[in-house]
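So, can you check?
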Amino acid sequence: MAIGVPEPFRTELQDWRERLGDPNAALIVPHVTLLGPTEVPATQLPAVERHLAEVAGGAEPFVIHLRGSGTFRPLSAVVFVTLAMGISCCEFLEKAVRSGPLDRPVRFSYHPHVTVAHDVDEESLDRAFELLAEYRAQFEVTGFGLYERGDDCAWRQLRHFPFAGGGGRPGDRTTGSG
């Protein structure tokens, strides 16, 4: 489960990931994870989808403001774009999603972010951290998606769960930098 980053920022961040040599760039669209990869038997999918629809039905649209770079090093070789706004809303959604049929233990504290470099060498991680230090983008979040990893290892959205507040307001986006 994830919040997909909308255009034009999706393409900007995807391009950054490709330029930085991330081998997963073409397989994973830019997103803010709500629940990491979790195997769900096909028989449980209807219950999971009902649960996600209930979670989305209890949420309202909110704004995410991406600003600057961060890293999980040395714990994990990842560089990401940080959330400067929208963190508490993502935390609420993560907790709500990770309940009911998706109740799972967590290995790490939840930290909403958009990965831009993973599975690359240290020099590329340093470069990513430096090059995206001034990145800025802002967009409205009006729902989240259920994604599935295909046989080709690419992640694709199976279903979108809109928030109770409906669609976005025109003119809320600002441009990113990159």
